[in-house]
Give the backbone structure.
Amino acid sequence: MREMSHFRSNLLSRRQKKAAAGAKCSTDEVRRPWLSSMQAKEAVSGYLFFLPWLAGFLIFTIYPFVYSVLLSFSEVILSPAGIKRSFIGLKWYREALTADATYPVSLLDTLRFIVLSTPMITVAALLLALLLNGRFRGRTFFRAVFFFPVIIISGPVIAELLSTKAAVVINPSDYAVYEFVRTLPGFLSMPLLYIFDNIVLILWFSGVQVIIFLAGIQKIGQPIREAASIDGASAWQMFWKIYLPFLKPLVLLNTIYTIVMLSGFSSNAVNGEIVNKMTLTGKVYGYSSAMSWIYFILLIILLGITYLIFSERKGRAGY
Amino acid sequence: MISRRRIRVFAGLQLRYFLLIGIGLVFLYPVAYMLVNSAKSLPDLVNPTIEWIPSTLYLDNYSRALKVLDYRHTLIVTVLLVAMETLLQTFSCSLAGYALARYRMPFKRFWMAMVVITFLIPSHVTLIPKYIMFSSYQLVGSPLSVLLPASLGQGINSTVFVLIFYQFFSSYPRSFDEAAQIDGAGRLRVFFRIALPVCVPAIVVSLLFSFVWFWNETYTSGLLLGSGLRTLPMKLQSFVEEYSRSFSSGSDGVNRINESIRSAATLLVITPLLMLYLVMQRYFIEGVESSGITGE
């Protein structure tokens, strides 16, 4: 007990040193653990309000999260008495990446879908937001049209759209342009063909992001815009010099939102794979967990790259 | 005399409308396509000369889709289940948002970070342990398997709602709470009588988006609810199989499933949401705008 309070007072004094206003306090105050009674009361009430979320976080997020790591390194045996785990190291990971006939394909498919769609969705959202910006007749109507897919989009609906070909607005291969694009080198033609093939999906996934960008544009002060236009800035210059720098944090936000949304989509091949192989004989639970972790790690890398590209760096934002 | 500037503004406006209408049509195209397709009879469907106007209004597709989806029953189940999830999620998220916004408590910044990080943990990672957990309590197939996480703030996208509530609860003056407390109201009373009524817009946003997102979520809940409890989108997911079970296809192929029937089913599944959107459209969009997501 004495040690505890000593430890606490140590912590407290370190904290106080950190605070510039390090008023010397009486021993009585140092002894008192952490907080004054008023503050303690407030903290307790605060935690009471926070308790449901906290309990849910521990039970339904942290526990499953940790457990799935363990599962991914384990061989699981189901018995009437319960679940038996034995550690097998990276076996499932290795098997998923090298011995599985379908998993690597689904994984690459899904990642390609995310990597190609995300920038296009973000750019489309930005362009649509610029189109909707300003005062003109029918603005509310068009805004409502651009937002409506958010309401109905779900894995099964998208799957139906694709399989009934309802998402194919123009059959691009009917047009000469398509053939021309196909003759271009791969790094150029692939994204272009992708836009042709997926235009509806790109637009349909952009609803929330459009509104976020739009709200962001409207936050850019009128004075700044007026000053720029008095100085003779063209719309083009305004976009690059004023809108885009202002919207950069939102670009980051929207890109992350898009990646997270797309990755969790139930019609993704990987997500299907994880559920379908959950009870594979001899690989129960563990194998699927390993597959979900490979996917998760790749997503984290993707999010990390996004963050590095779009976050405000001190060096650059300095001047 | 018309100045050059006015001409430019006018041309800009024309261009804007041209683009807006063009893009708007692309947005609406799939729904229009399905609408037309769903009213086509089989001969119309295979007839290449009939594209946008079916020769007759053929509604048999709908009656078949209604039957396979078991529409009335499934609709009631879906609405009830989703409404419960929505209410529970909104309530639990409002509590969490209120605690973070209004109380000084140790480790607050840490918990804020955790709230945000939860958003980045994909459902497929926690799915299998959740399944094991619920099945060990015999709760797979029970509505509790989706209601419990929702009631503890771990439903779909609950991070977003905690943050929206945090934003709203931080933005009204503390003196409101203090005045009520001086008048003798307890902390719970302050929450229910002062904080929640002030933040009705946040509640509306949370209710609407939770409803839509829970409705459309089929991945986690599809597994946890098992085969007994199926919402409309889940029925749509297995529509093809269930169709062949209800209508055994004869050798002549009369009863075979086709695009028209599938389109009808898809439309039936999204119609309730579209109706909700038609009525509440303003609140959805203003909700995103006022969420304060653009503020920080």
About this structure: Chain B has two domains: 4-46, 70-237. Chain B touches chain A through 90 residues (CB under 8 Å).
